[in-house]
Amino acid sequence: MIGQLSRLIVARQNPSSLTNAIRTTVAAIASYLVARLFQLPEAYWAPLSALIALQSGLGASLPISMQYFVGTAIGAAVGTVTVAYFGVSVWAFGIAVFLMGLLFAVLRVQRNAYRYASVTLVIVMLVTRSTSVSLIAIHRFFEVSLGLVVGLLVSQFWPERASGTLDPRGGTRP
């Protein structure tokens, strides 16, 4: 049991590195500062989104980021329309989640995009704030989009290098 757990935690083929820590830090701080520059009220969504975009190399990050982008846009739009026509209620929210899922199923959209759309819908519809729902939706969309762009730019211009595998004699080999 402990052996299995240690294999899950200790990466033999792709261990963390100082470079990865620096890349991640640069993307998180840059996205947060840009969001603050634009005076977005929940600037923390930008670094969260940048971290999602950086989770793997650009080849894997781009599809995940696109699903996050599309899901966020649809969740924000559905939340705004639902509140405008039906108000904020648990029933309107539940119906919106279901109908959005039905739409994604019919269009055969990835489940991750539906998850991101649902998270955005929760934030737009159920988090109490003193501003309009449409403004909340717009801010959420821009905060996430900004973080994704920064994360993808860092992935593009500062790609993660494949680390060498461990050599049984000590050190690493390429």
Brief summary:
With 174 residues, the chain is an all-alpha fold. It has helices at 2-9, 18-37, 45-53, 58-86, 90-106, 111-126, 133-157, and strands at 165-166, 172-173. It has one domain.
Whole-number total of structural domains: 1
Approximate helicity band? over 70%
Order of helices and strands: HHHHHHHEE
Most strands sheet: 2 strands, antiparallel
The average pLDDT score comes to 85
Rg, Å, rounded: 19 Å
What would you say this structure looks like, in words?
With 174 residues, the chain is mainly α. The chain has one domain. It is built from 7 helices and 2 strands. The chain has helices at residues 2-9, 18-37, 45-53, 58-86, 90-106, 111-126, 133-157; strands at residues 165-166, 172-173. Strand 1 (165-166) and strand 2 (172-173) form a beta hairpin. The radius of gyration is 19 Å and the shape is globular. It starts with a helix and ends with a strand.
What descriptive keywords fit this protein?
about 170 residues, mainly alpha, two-stranded antiparallel sheet, 7 helices, 2 strands
